[in-house]
Structure formats: structure tokens, C-alpha cells
Amino acid sequence: MDAAELPECPVCLQAYDGGECTPRVLACGHSACEVCLVHLPKPFPHTLRCPACTQLVHYPHPQGPSALPKNIDLLRLSSLLQPKTNPNFNKTTNPATKIPKKTQDFMPNLWSHELYSVWKNWVLPENAVSVELDVKGGDFGCIWGRAVNLDDSLSNSSQLHVRCLIKGNQEVSLVKVGCFDESDCELDYGYLAKVMLTLCGMRDGERDELGLVLRASLRQRRLCKVYGLWYNEGSVYIVCERHDCGLLNMLDDWENGFFLGSKELSGVLMIGMEICEAVMGLHSEGLIAGVLSLPCFEFDDLGRVYISFNEVFVMCGRLCRIMAEAVSVKWKLDGEESKVSFKEYLLKNQTFVSPELLFEVLQKGGIELGPNCVRYAVGYGSDVWQLACVLLSLLVGKAFIEETDKYVFSLILSATCERSTGYMDLYRGWLEKVTNLLESRLGSEFVMIKEHLCNCLDFDPGKRPRVINIWKCIRELIIKPKLYIMDTLEQVVVKENAGHCLVLGELCQLLKETNKATQREMIGSSLEEKDASGRTDSDQPGDLRANRNFVEGLSKGRMKCINLKGHRDCITGLAVGGDYLFGSSFDKAVHVWSLQDFTHVHSYTGHEHRVMAVVFVDEEQPLCISGDSGGGICIWGIGTPFGQEPIKRLYEEKDWRYSGIHALTVSGTGYLYTGSGDKSVKAWSIEDYTLSCTMTGHKSVVSALAVCNGILYSGSWDGTVRLWCLSDHSPLTVLGEDTPGNVTSILSLAADRHALVVAHENGCLEIWGHDVLLTSMPAHQGAIFSVSMEGKWLFTGGWDKTVIVQELSGDDSDIDTTLVGSIACDSVITALLSWQGKLIVGLADRCIKVQYITVGSDDSHTKDVLNSKYGPYGRLL
User: Fold this and answer.
1) Which 3 state secondary structure label does DSSP give 622?
2) Hey, which of 38, 226, 649, 728 has its CA 20 to 30 A from 135?
3) Protein kinase domain: from which residue to which, for each copy (predicted)?
4) Where are the alpha helices (DSSP H) in 375-523?
């Protein structure tokens, strides 16, 4: 040994010196210093992992490492070598740090981790919202994307109530923000996966805008609450807070204006001040509505005015659609139908659109404006114009709305003509009429508010006052003597054009088309009744079609299936090794298929009873080991040619009450483990085929076994999982012993270095991290017979004839499960095995299916080979 290579602790890399860095020998034969052994994590009571080989070994308690023997040889060697060290010496490689073998995923990543972490908390549970049809009828109806229907022709229709169950059965409104078409996908995606795939299909601008709205609803009390995203029947909706107390519902006589006595005027001004506060709250979040109307403002339970995002999006979508109709060929040809439609829209919805926004919408719609048309940028001043119109409609009434409708209608005609020179004359004429209407309603003492409102209607948005100035003016009229607010309450928004306009945003630009089938898709025949009564879905924001390029690999590359037939009874176990697939069955045989082309290679037929399990042993001589219900174990050699007789037969000691092998596993340390009907776990030496140890403790049949990271896990019908140390087969701990409730049998286990997955007879799935239960969930409708885990993918199958595909993420202490989808099968699923991106499914109908997803032409070679030799998809007849 080189003098520079001093013996050192594999943890702290300090040379052993016989003092604080004294080497202590562990049960595996490796050494570490006393100080490091004290601070190493103890995954289970009285155990630790060797820092050199990661094997689980006993740790003396309470004596500590001082009870372990010193490594005298290392101390003697350290004293003989020179005490100098070379900074470039080679350090011993920790086997635990070996680069893991890269595995092929079952399917491509459906979404990025960053997108999932941002949006997962916004997804409401599937049962969070309920929809029911009230056939008693009423004067309003709640339909998709709209809380109140203002169409006079629909006044006698039925009510569709949408309730958010997680919020105390509170009525909510829904805004449709996306669709996901899964008709071409054979994988039945889960609820959360459908929402995430819809979000993935959106453009970045659409997602960013949606995020702005959701975050703004949390921070501003003047904006309606948005509870989250909800998926149903192919569509994703924003679930918004809803109250019956809309601004129009509370103001019975708004059409003729209010009698402006002192009390009545104070009430109207108070409402106006709260409307200003709501708009300021919207602007403080960097959002510009672009379209405001009386229905956009509602009262909460405390009588405060807030902005309804539901109504804003509805108005935006309606504006986009009505403008598309207004500038159509009919409109240019002076078609009366389009003119009437547009006038009725403006009148019935009390929608106000500033001139600059109107020109912008026309321009985005592909309509060429006149050469003399002066355009201004859309910004916060655009909402000031709409805000003034809302206040004027409260003060003046229907007369103001009619004059405004005529003005906007004429403005479109003027702006789209070739000359476009008369639009300023139209504006001045309209403003003069509005001023006269306002003077007739307000006395001389309200000069200040009249001036502010008229200035808000200036054609140039840069000359309009700020919202807070209107708020101050109204406040001074209400509170006397004047109480000035603090100077810090200046305009919240500093940059005039820095906001994001919703009506010009990504979401609303996609709201031009209407999905006529959405309501029928949602509640089926109940809505057909509704349609028969005369209701339409024209108020619905429309069909936002998700861009499916993100899942192109799943839509174009279909789920492929290869059927392997040969067994004559229910499949009980699957194993892969040595380029072969092994399947066991109740037919007392083990069949072998090639993993190259899935052709049938051989059959082992030496069992006298039903074969319950099969495993592959990767030794110098590869072995296939199978166990049967009579307690017999057959050890088969793998090679060419395959032998007809087993290399060795082993038999468990029979018990007249309990007998048979129910589970098999191997440890990689020279042992075969069997789970038996006699409630024990037995360890068999693969070297000499002798029984080495019998582990007892379970109170019923040992039905499942798994080995991982130096631990043997055994699951039983008694509902518990016991952990055993592989080094000496001593018991470590028991999981599920103190779990409250009825005992449910454990039927399958799967383990990796992060988690232990436990499947129960009642369809429940448990995930443990070390000895802590991280999550428990109902996964299947009936018993879960098999669990398989590969990398981040978790597969479960059982009595309900469905394979559930879940994605695992997180670490040992916080594992998150995402239901990606499910695969329907023709029979009960009795065995599962994931291998190299393929899912191998054993069924009770004697068939083994190999499921895998192909992208593009990646599987063309495999398909050609299978079709040329064995028919479509390699079917073995």
C-alpha cells in the first residue's frame, strides 16, 4: 500500500487515529469512526445503514458504537504508515452512489414539474361542484359561464343551479377556459391529468392570463373569489363566487334614473364610490377589464360591491362575437339583421366600450379602419370611460344607454368607412346630449361630479381623470365637512398602459366561437328539457380548444397491445430476466416467452399443484423459481435447450391447517424467500438449496413479499407489513399494527428506495415512507391483486378489471401521487409487471397482455417483425 493511502472513515474521510476517529467494525464487516456512527440516520429502531455498502445492520442500544469491536488491523496499519496525505489520492467509491441504470418510461412526460407544482393547488376535487336542474322555473337561470341570464326571451325558463359543495353548498358560476379532446386516446386519463393536459395545451399567454386572474382574486376583496379549476365532460371551468344580489337586482328603478333627493343621491353615490374601489382593486393587480357594465358588479353578503370575473368574461366573449357579426359581410352591405342584433346586444347588456377599445377590437377582427381614424392605446383610462358610463347609467337611467348605443353604433360605421372624418363630430354631439341629460338630473351643487364624469368621457384616454380622483370627488360630496385622505392614497397604478386588458387578452380572443353542446354534455337529458323550454347557450363564453401538440405522442402513437396466449387458467405471477418473460398460472405450468419478439419459447410443467408465484434469479447460472399451493418449489435452469425437469425440488413442511406458497422473492444476497400459508416467511439458500431461517410473527397467510435497500417486507392477510433485516433475518418493525378500523388483507407489495406501496383487499392503497404512513387512498372498486412500480410510475390492478396508472413525485417524507389515467381490461387483473417502458398484465382469463405506448414510427420495426411472423401484434393463437 502506498504511504499516502491512509485508512480513513468512509463518512468524514478522516484518517483513523485511535482517538476520536476510532474504527468500529459493523456486522457487514466494514468500519466507520465512532463519531460518524453516532450521527448516522437510524431508519428503524436499533439499525443503521453501513456507509460503505448501504446494508442494514444492527446498532447497539443504548451503549452506542462503543459496544462494537475496534478494527485493530486498521489502527495498526495507520500507525505504520506515514501521516502525510496527498490531496489527489483516490477515495473509495461508495456503492450507494453508483449511477442508477437508466430506465425507459412507460409514457413521455405529460407535463413539466414546474407547471404541475404551480397549478396543482388550483385544481378542485372532482366532487367539489354539483349541477342540478330546477324545473320549477324562475326569472333567471344560471348557465355555463354566466350567473344571470338577461335575455328577455328566456325569462320563463328553468334554473340550472351550480353549487360548490366544498364551500358549504354555496352557489357558484362557471367560466369555461379550456377543452380537452380525449376521443383519440385509448388511455382513460384521470381527473387531475385531464386538467393538467388542458393547461399544457394552452399557449403561454393564456396560462399567464389565467394565473393573473386567479392570483388577483386571492389578494383583492373587491374582486369575486375564484375557488379554482374544475373539470367535467371535456371542459375545464373557473369556479367563481356567485351571489343573487347583482347591481341590477338591487336597483329596481334604474331605467328612469333615481329621484335625486338628498337620501336617494347619497345612496347612489355610496354605491358609486364602492364601484370605484372595485375598479381600483382590479387595476392594482395590473388588470384592465376593457368592458364594464352594470351586471359586472354584484353585492356580497355584507352589501359591498365587487367585480364578478364571470360577468366580465361573459361580456368580453359576447363583445368579441357580436363585433365579429357586426363587421361581417352583412354589416358592410347595410344588413338590417346585423344592425338590430348589435343594438339589442348593447341595450340589453348595458355594455360600454370606449372608442379606443372599439377601434382595437375592429382592428384585431381584421377590419380596416379609415385612413383618418385616430387611434389611442388601450390602458387603464379605457376602464375610466366604462366606469363613467356605469355611474351615468345609475344617475340618468335608460336614456343615457340609448344615446350611447346610437353613438357607438354610428362610430363603427364612421370609423370603417373610407373617409372616416365624421367620427369626432359624432363624439361631440353625443357628449353634448349626455351633458344635457346629466344637468337635468343634477342640481347646481353637483358641478364637480358633473365635470369629472364628462372628463371621463374624453375621446383622448390620456386626458381622462384617474379612478381615485373620481372616488375622492364622490367622497367629498358624501362626507361633510371635508375629510381629506392621506397623501399616500394616490393613484395605485402609475404607468398608464402597463396593465393587461382582459378583453384583448388570449383567453377572450378564443371566446368568439360557441360550443353548442356543452350544456348537454354536462348534465345530459336534464338539459334537453331545458333546451325544449327555449333556453339557448348563447351567453356561454365559448369553446377554448386545447392545443394537443403537447400530447402528440399519445394521440398519434397509440397504446399498443400484444396478446400472449398459452396458459389454460388464471395467471398468478410474472417475472422478467435473461431476455425472457416468465408467467405462472393455476394450470400448474410456467410458460416462457422471448422478450425480443414475444414468441412462446418453452413450458415448465413439473408442478403437481397450482403455481402461485414465479421469480427470476440472476446468478452465474440464471434460474427460474416457482412455488405452488402444495408447498412445492421448483428450481429451473435457463438455457438452450430448456430442460423438462427442474434442477431441484424443495418442499415446505406441511401443516394440516395451512399449507402452500403464496409469494416469492429473492434478495440478491443468495437467498430465496417464500411467503406461506402457515403464517411464516422462510429463507432458502440458493447456494445449497437448504432452509436457512423461518421468520414468524404474522397472524395469517403471508401473501406478499418485497425486497429493497437491505430490508425484506412481508405483507399478510392480517393487515400488517413486517420488516426484516436481510443481514441476519431479525425483525425490525411492524407497519399497520396500530391502524384504526377493520383489518383488511394485504394482497400485494411494491417497494423502492423512496416508498413502500401496500395494496389491500378493500381497494385501498397505502404509501409508506420508512415507517410512516404518508398517504392512504381508495384506488379501486374491489380487491387490488397486483402492484408494480418502476421509476416514477405506479401501476395497480385488480377485481374491477382496470389498471390504474399513477405518477409519483416528491421525496421520502412527502410523496405526491397523481392519477394519470386508467386502462380497461377484459378480465380481472391478477398480475402486473413493468419492464423497459412496457406494462405486462396477467389476467384471470388466461391471457397475458403487453401494453406499451409508441411515438411516431418508433415501433415500426417491432410491428413489422411481429406481423411478418406471428400476425397482427404478435398474437399467439
Assistant:
1) coil
2) 226
3) 129-478
4) 380-395, 398-416, 423-441, 447-456, 467-478, 506-509, 518-523
